Amino acid sequence: MTSKGRINEFKQWLTYRTNYTFFALGYKTMQESKQAPKSQRIYQEIKKYSPYSLERRIGGFQILMEGSDVKEKPPIKEVYNRLDQLDKIWGKKYISINGDFVIIKDKD
Q1: Are 63 and 72 in contact (CB under 8 A)?
Q2: Spans in the chain with pLDDT lower than 70
Q3: Are 50 and 100 in the same domain?
Q4: Would the pTM of this model clear 0.70, i.e. be above it?
């Protein structure tokens, strides 16, 4: 095999390896940023009352709190985990379960 053949073979191998590495890193990052699974039936009903919402911006997302000017701008990788964290804090304070009923308390 000539040296040109070896160089072309190495370039091809390097291209495939680089593509694979970027794919693997992207997949790993996506898996880390996924939210924990929730009961969709209950979560959709409770989410209506949550004071937090996502707003798109040029650099990703920001978390807004209803009735406040406070905006959080977490890194794109952590935005859903942070929103989940804020919802849990809000839920501990304003949601209670009484038998088969979920009671959402008003903040006033």
Answers
A1: yes
A2: 1, 107-108
A3: yes
A4: no
| Same domain, residue pair 54 and 70 | yes
CB 35 within 8 A of CB 84: yes
Domain that holds residue 4: 1-32
Q: Does 45 lie in the same domain as 19?
A: no
Q: What is the DSSP string of 33-84?
A: TPPPP--HHHHHHHHTT-SEEEEEETTEEEEEETTS--EE---GGGHHHHHH
Say yes or no: 98 and 50 in one domain.
yes
DSSP 1: -
pLDDT of residue 12: 92
Q: How far apart are CA 47 and CA 50, in angstroms?
A: 5
